[in-house]
Design a protein that fits this description.
It is built from 11 helices and 21 strands. It has 2 domains: 138 residues, no CATH class; 170 residues, 3-Layer(aba) Sandwich (Rossmann fold).
């Protein structure tokens, strides 16, 4: 298996009668799939659904199909601090196959075809991630940079929040969504680009997947759990609850109402969570200079990952370094603030309300 044609030869792309059109900022994508998959994607991607029209990419979702033969897979190295196998890849002469090790989902990334296949109906979030990867790829090739951040806006100011995984990005953003003027932009990936009018932030169409710790601390989110499950979680220690992984889909429109999602925003502030549960100091939100703080910049930068293919057709390797100067150039006019001290979401929500007042 050396070429994209070899992969396509073993797959049937005729059974995709539905076409969904998605729009986020300057990017429009078509997704072709069967009716069952379309119904799932319409639910998850409702805020990005658009009318038929010209697109920058077409993604085919082939539920239940698989490769005729297995290639030699190479593990994609995970980020520092992460363990276990997650992604593997196989490079073709004119494309790349990516395998999700835990689920068996497989993806073809190439200039000829973009395919998601395998147990797609059982793995809708991996299908959605692949679709969103195409948005990130298109923007990255057009000069945007990818940030590991959540974001919210009131239309005038835009706030991005970065930090280590599990540091409280989602919890903070959802607390700020309690403000009636705020709009959800993104939960985990934010594209940024400097323009003559300031810095623009662009989110991706994916609802947050949140842990119980985020839910139990926010009464508005309580209906996401059963009464019995809430009681079980209430008996857990604070530390155990913080570490507990149990993902729940949060549909923004269901909880906060329609019209509360806005994928593009003026990016005016970037907060980096550098707080700690072990700290006895009060929570502080203080100005910092990104050029002088490579540790904070590392929390913001995010690799485009195994799916990214640049304008020359070259795919990323897992040891390709990120370019700090590219991020500094895009974020030069954005106010950077570091959040230190103990983890206090009430204090951070108050600081956010002051920004959006």
């Amino acid at each position: 298996m050396n070429r994209v044609a070899d992969v396509l030869d073993g797959l049937d792309r005729s059974g995709v009668p539905e076409t969904l059109f998605l729009e986020t900022g300057p990017v429009r994508i078509a997704v072709r799939c069967d009716t069952s998959m379309a119904n799932v994607l319409k639910r998850h991607l409702a805020d990005a659904l658009a009318a038929e029209g010209p697109v920058s990419a077409v993604v085919d979702v082939l539920n239940g199909q698989k490769l005729k033969s297995e290639p030699a897979w190479t593990d994609w190295a995970r980020e520092p601090g992460k363990t276990g196998r997650k992604d593997a890849y196989h490079d073709l002469e004119d494309g790349r196959l990516v395998r999700k090790v835990r689920t068996g989902m497989t993806f073809l990334q190439s200039s000829q075809a973009l395919l998601a296949f395998g147990p797609c109906l059982n793995c809708p979030n991996q299908v959605i991630n692949f679709i969103n990867t195409q948005i990130l790829n298109i923007c990255k090739r057009d000069g945007w940079e990818i940030c590991h951040a959540a974001a919210v806006t009131d239309g005038v100011n835009g706030l991005a929040i970065a930090g280590l995984s599990g540091g409280g990005k989602s919890t903070t953003i959802l607390r700020l969504m309690d403000l009636e003027t705020s709009r959800f932009v993104t939960n985990d990936r934010l594209m940024v680009r400097a323009t003559a009018d300031g810095v623009t932030g662009l989110g991706i169409p994916k609802n947050p997947r949140i842990n119980p710790g985020t839910i139990v601390g926010n009464p508005r989110l309580a209906p996401l759990l059963t009464d019995a499950r809430r009681l079980e979680l209430a008996r857990m220690s604070t530390e155990d609850l913080w570490q507990h992984e149990e993902k729940h889909d949060l549909f923004i429109s269901d909880v906060y109402g329609t019209g509360r999602v806005q994928f593009t925003m003026p990016l005016t502030e970037f907060w980096v969570l550098n707080w700690s549960r072990q700290s006895s100091s009060p929570t502080r939100v203080q100005d910092a200079n990104l050029a002088d703080r490579p540790d904070l910049l590392r929390a913001i930068m995010k690799s485009a990952g195994p799916f990214y293919q640049d304008t020359r057709g070259r795919f990323l390797r897992d040891d390709d370094p990120l370019c700090p100067d590219a991020y500094l150039a895009q974020l030069n006019s954005v106010r950077l603030r570091e959040v230190t001290g103990t983890i206090d979401f009430d204090a951070l929500a108050l600081a956010g309300r002051e920004l959006f007042s």
